[in-house]
């Protein structure tokens, strides 16, 4: 009987030992699985943070590439032939997909032509267009002035203001839905109108900056420098007709002089005849006296 009890106790101890070992092993596996999950979570978090860093850097680069600069250029040109040079310039404007906004042409005192042209060319083709002007035949660039205005900061500020005004607009719409009194509705409507007007002004300014940063302005002052030799037209010579006119004018002048002289003699005869007689008497007496001597 005692042997049976000892065997039962011995068996019970062995079972308890195995059960404890199994529990400890299961705990170790659960701990290892939890640590693996934690490490995977931390790795994923690190991956996300790395991705965020990459997106931030990309955003920074995109902001740098999206800077808005308004370019303006004033160029003075000296040309040999105004018409030919004008045709070449218009062709170059078409090649870069630009626009001719305004043009003014007039003649100078030397019968040469001058003109002022206002152009709009894409910003990407701005520098290339100015270089091509210098290579055109018969055209000499005498002066060139380029100015650039960076409006990126203003554009970003306008974008932030637009978002804020749009948020206010949305809140006013919500208030309008909840308003019950007429006075409240009128006040909200006035505020909403003011906000919407400010939004339109901001959008208009942003569109203006977009357009001017995408299309650069170029003002050309073109001066023609050539000696104009008039053509000899035989029809304008008219040698025979002009000779007859000159002869008639000379004859008319001679007749006019004779007529004037006769008028003077006849009209002044009451004075001229006595003077002539007295003069003739003095002359006769003088000759007679010389002969006697």
UniProtKB/TrEMBL annotation:
Residues 40-50 have a biased composition (Basic and acidic residues). Residues 27-61 are annotated as: Disordered. InterPro entries: DUF4349 (IPR025645). The keyword Glycoprotein does not apply. Residues 1-24 form the signal peptide. Keywords: Membrane, Signal, Transmembrane, Transmembrane helix. Pfam families: DUF4349 (PF14257). Residues 67-283 form the DUF4349 domain. This is DUF4349 domain-containing protein. PROSITE patterns: PROKAR_LIPOPROTEIN. The chain crosses the membrane at residues 253-286.
């Amino acid at each position: 009987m005692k042997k049976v009890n000892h065997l039962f106790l011995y068996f019970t101890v062995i079972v308890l030992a195995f059960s404890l070992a199994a529990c400890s092993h299961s705990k170790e596996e659960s701990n290892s699985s939890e640590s693996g999950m934690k490490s995977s979570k931390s790795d994923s978090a690190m991956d996300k943070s790395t991705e965020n860093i990459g997106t931030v850097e990309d955003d920074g680069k995109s902001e740098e590439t999206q800077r808005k600069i308004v370019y303006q250029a004033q160029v003075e040109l000296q040309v040999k032939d105004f018409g030919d040079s004008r045709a070449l310039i218009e062709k170059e404007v078409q090649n870069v997909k630009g626009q001719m906004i305004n043009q003014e042409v007039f003649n100078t005192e030397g019968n040469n032509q001058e003109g002022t042209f206002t152009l709009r060319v894409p910003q990407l083709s701005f520098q290339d267009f100015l270089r091509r002007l210098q290579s055109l035949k018969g055209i000499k660039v005498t002066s060139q002035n380029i100015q650039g205005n960076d409006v990126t900061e203003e554009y970003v500020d306008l974008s932030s203001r637009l978002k804020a005004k749009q948020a206010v607009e949305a809140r006013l719409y919500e208030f309008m839905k909840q308003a019950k009194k007429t006075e409240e509705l009128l006040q909200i409507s006035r505020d909403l109108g003011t906000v919407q007007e400010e939004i339109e002004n901001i959008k208009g300014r942003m569109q203006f900056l977009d357009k001017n940063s995408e299309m650069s302005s170029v003002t050309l002052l073109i001066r023609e420098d050539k000696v104009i030799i008039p053509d000899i037209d035989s029809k304008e010579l008219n040698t025979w007709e002009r000779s007859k006119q000159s002869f008639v004018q000379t004859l008319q002048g001679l007749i006019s002089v004779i007529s004037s002289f006769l008028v003077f003699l006849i009209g002044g005869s009451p004075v001229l005849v006595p003077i002539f007689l007295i003069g003739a008497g003095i002359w006769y007496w003088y000759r007679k006296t010389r002969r006697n001597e």
